Amino acid sequence: MDTQTPKPPSEAALIKEALRRVRLSGREAARRAGLSETRWRQIVNGYQDVGGVRIPVAAPDETLARMAQVVNVSADQLRQVGRSIAAELLDELAAPPTAASTPGAPDSNAQIEAITALLATLSPEVRQEVLRRISQPPANETGQTESQDNSRRRKAS
Q1: DSSP designation for 95
Q2: Is residue 56 within 8 Å of residue 46, measured between CB atoms?
Q3: What predicted TM-score, i.e. pTM, was given to this entire model?
């Protein structure tokens, strides 16, 4: 069993020290960053155990930006440790919302954009079927649409 521990990348040490400064638990910081506690720990420690072997781990830029935001690491600090793309993403996260990025603004919701992108990858037939299903009224707990449920109630009275 190889137990040699890889040296954590510079950004991992930066996040670890910032976590200590903000006095958050790893669990709470992970939750705020949208990560599992295990993944947070792997990134901060710079490795994960795979079959008894410690494999080096470096956070993807998007993940690192979210982690940095939670523990108040600045974009400049990320740049100093060589993570410029994560720094740019952190700047975007920290930017004040614009009308186009404000949730609820027409056609600007990130979920709508993601669904639109997904729909664009589908064949025309599949896309049409998905849109047909979306346009149907939602089903209740019994699987019936509200109109089917109301119709059944009227017949029962």
Answers
A1: S
A2: yes
A3: 0.60
